[in-house]
Amino acid sequence: MTAFDAHDPLGIDDLLSDEDRAVRDTVRSWAADRVTPYVADWYERGELPGIRDLARELGSLGALGMSLTGYGCAGAGAVQYGLACLELEAADSGIRSLVSVQGSLAMYALHRFGSEEQKQHWLPSMASGEVIGCFGLTEPDHGSDPSGMRTRAERDGSDWVLNGRKMWITNGSVAGVAVVWARTDEGIRGFVVPTDTPGFSAPEIKHKLSLRASVTSELVLDDVRLPADAVLPEAHGLRGPLSCLSHARYGIVWGSMGAARACFDAALAYTREREQFGKPLAGFQLTQAKLADMAVELHKGVLLAHHLGRRMDAGRLRPEQISFGKLNNTREALEICRVARTLLGANGISMEYPVMRHSTNLESVLTYEGTVEMHQLVLGKALTGVDAFRG
Fold it and tell me: Secretion signal: which residues (predicted)?
């Protein structure tokens, strides 16, 4: 019988193939070398310096558009993509957000709904990280209810003219292309917007207290004129952007467990070394109770993510099941981080440790791409057959 592993108490590693482990270990090694030593400083400064270099490096790893096929994309399985998200978020949620928005939102929208010309033009350079993408859905007045969006696209001859604003857009001010959703006379449509188009601007949002090592922007569209072929031909209505969000939410199911793991590991190491009342903190019953509860929720969450990944690989994953994972894992990850903070005492708020940084990041992860309440209602509707979103 193999020895008990405090970092893999259920032996989840046994569920992974050699290729799965190779993907995980490659991303973990890259994050340990290129992110972990520097991210506390980036977070404190509220910036992500060298984001273009990081994007190219992630592209060389095959991490951008990782689960897509063709056009320079890696064509990896869903579990492998999930493992990459977990390792990236164990370093910082902002880095995983960079990858998620690039691959699961902007690239996924082009790959699934774009014309062949759009795919050929944008996807290879996005897969390599030479071009960064963003995804414009959320608006200043409409987050959880995208059906109320005010951004409009009007026909002018054969052209489209876009006007409106999008808010809380990751990668916005460094993007070379934006996938923007707008209301038209034909319903909601998606548009491929090169960011050097006149009338497009993306001022960066400052003074954030979460996701500080990440680029977050507003998108402003002021009479942005686009040719007829800028529209995504296969996307009609809200089903288009919502399917992109489902793909991105799947990455969050895994990624949130990465942040939780980092905080659990920090708490476990700290309590083994820190002495109070003549012995290590780990020797007290209340400490062990906290660590046990944290480990149970962490590894239950990883098992849930793994199960959803296998369902996605089999083509059987439903949006309601993704909501199940996003709801559970983000809530439990945040609670794990909060408990870790108590075990570290005052040191828990120090940037010398990752706990408070992950905790504040997870406050955003908890609510972006679907708040707790939205996912509860998605599950509530699936369970009862009654739609309670509007009353």
Answer: none
